Amino acid sequence: MRHGGQILVEALRLNGVTRVFSVPGESFLAALDGLHGSGIANIVCRHEGGAAMMAEAQGKLTGRPGVAFVTRGPGATNASAGVHVARQDSTPMILFVGQIARGDTDREAFQEVDYRAMFAPLAKWVAQIDQTDRLAEYVARAFHVAQSGRPGPVVLALPEDMLSARADCPDLPAAALPRPHVAPDSVQAVAEALAGARRPLVVAGGSLWSQRAADDLARFAAAWDLPVVVPFRRQDRMDNRLTQYVGDLGVGMNPALGQALREADLILSLGSRLGDTLTGGYALMDPVRPHARVVMVHPDPDQLGTLWRADPGIVADPRAMLAALAALPAPAPVWADWRERLRAAYEDWQQPRPTPGALRLEQVVTWLAEYLPEDAIVTNGAGNYASFLHRYYRWRQMGTQLAPTSGSMGYGLPAAIAASIAHPGRMVVCLAGDGCIQMTVNELSTAAQYGATPIVIVANNGRYGTIRMHQERHYPGRVSGTDLFNPDFAALARAYGGHGERVDRDADFAPAFERARLSGRLAVIELALDPEALTPGATLTQTRDAALKALA
Q1: Model confidence over 374-396: pLDDT tens digits?
Q2: What is the reported pTM?
Q3: Which of 334, 379, 394, 549 could tie 416 with a disulfide, CB 3.0–4.6 Å?
Q4: What is the Cα–Cα distance from 195 to 325, expressed in whole angstroms?
Q5: β-strand partners of 444
Q6: Which CATH architecture has domain 361-551?
């Protein structure tokens, strides 16, 4: 006879879980007891949103579900931010939520929430486990659902009396996923579609990816001389230095690439949904008036035909499709000029445009692109600062970009902590805005407690930059709610026992970064940016003046 917490933790162990992220609560004390001495590390966080984002980052890094435990009510609502990231980013993740005792259901008990209703739009599957002897069954199904088809989050509620009760039940083996297979006629259909194109564009994205897939994509694109783009914040799907790589679709994309999306006569989508972010709010590709043939390879059959008439639509793991395509004999390409034009536009886009101030973010990012190791993991959250990273950094290996395609602020620091714990021998760099980092800045404590050593670069311009940009475009000169009062970020790092310093000039960044690296500790480098430096392409004043001129 074992209590439910022990049954649950053994099920996690059998499914290969070695680390969970949590904020402890009295509603799942039995699970905490089960973790004691189990060999599964419990990374205790400072906020449930941080714990859920760390679990999501773990899922991105491994392709296996990241696991988080949070308590009922406020704990679950706090964690919902990370569940939303996992949903929109197609990341496998399992969130366990403590729940009230079963006998108190529907009495508005202390912190009672109907999690099926709350998480239904956010998760792939939500359930409550009401029988202790069915814990292993539910966990096995959760791992299968989180990883099958289009990966995503699963939420399981754990009534506290169920979890503390004892049962005599067998353990179940780890979830076994179906073996990926691509039919030869499907591969041939993709090849024939490409052969009939004159301006093809490959969109390589989704969460089902690997270094082998990146290598297969590189071989396939080189043999066919195909231009390859990646979706928003999936820039590590292909070595950006290769001549077939032509940029990323999404927020702040190269206008020349947007124009190429308009001109393409065939889009080969490998794992991407081709949603609004990638298509400029459907201004570049209109589902109502499609201008290009769309060939879509996606693991979820429900995605085929949701936005685009896929011709053909193939239900498959894009990794398996790429392996098959890379093995095909290549025809003589007829689109060399097209690919060369797009690559030239990308390389021109890579040339830094100067922004105001003695310390310029474009110079920081281009320095990082040149000097970071190829396997360095770079994380970020949301904000205008990230557009500098997307534009000027070059990713070279799969698994080195952790960023929320959902656009969630506060993601970069928890993701960097999770990455540093998972890969203590690799360099981990987080780029965060002053507004973004303050969403989860308390997780610096978690980093210090568990020996995580990310180098956190805080782009401080004293405002919510993205919202200020939109404000100046729509209501120029009418500043409301976007200015920030900030702490001394460098001093905050030192308060947690880390290394912290502030940089005010371009020439001082490289020495500061080296001191941070040599410290061997959690480090924060605060960048004192000129408030005029709003975006990579326009200052604050230029943005405001353009809006005023348009209104005149």
Answers
A1: 999 999 999 999 999 999 999 99
A2: 0.96
A3: 379
A4: 13
A5: none
A6: 3-Layer(aba) Sandwich (3.40)
